[in-house]
Amino acid sequence: GQNIDQPTEMTATEGAIVQINCTYQTSGFNGLFWYQQHAGEAPTFLSYNVLDGLEEKGRFSSFLSRSKGYSYLLLKELQMKDSASYLCAVQSNTGKLIFGQGTTLQVKP
Amino acid sequence: DTEVTQTPKHLVMGMTNKKSLKCEQHMGHRAMYWYKQKAKKPPELMFVYSYEKLSINESVPSRFSPECPNSSLLNLHLHALQPEDSALYLCASSQDQRGRVGEQYFGPGTRLTVT
What pLDDT is stored for residue A13 in this prediction? Predict the structure, then answer.
């Protein structure tokens, strides 16, 4: 079966660091993606991991452990504009993206 | 140009109407996707076109009919929709359906309301 779990909601303070976890069990794995989606807007690509380890991109980093079926997205130096929904998505062998339910992050001053 | 465009932005239609959603990309991508997204839910895949051929149909009702006239365009024809079909319809494209395809570029979406 296909199952992707991430927390529903998180709250953090401006300037802080937040880690959003994602665990997955999928039939076939061809990479894990993180997307950011602001309310009423389209998802935008943040990161891609296909090998174990950490990928860093500015204030955002993403980590993958394939043996544990686990990933996290790390956001540093939080800004108010980072308040959004963060979607973890696993790509199956057919190329299909399977999305988690999304984590709504609220950044407070 | 890393943009996927969609028209219209908003659409209100009755249950007996026929309408079409349009999507365009000029990135040379060969895979294009239709997703449906309800409020506070993740996008749900509807259709995938790969090299202008329908590759995946996620058991979508026949009142939704996709069409890929060429490699840059993707349409979604709507007919006899139900109020529960009201949602944000997202188009996306990627270089290919396999490989590092998850880097899908999403369009801004069409907010559809069925009355």
Answer: 97
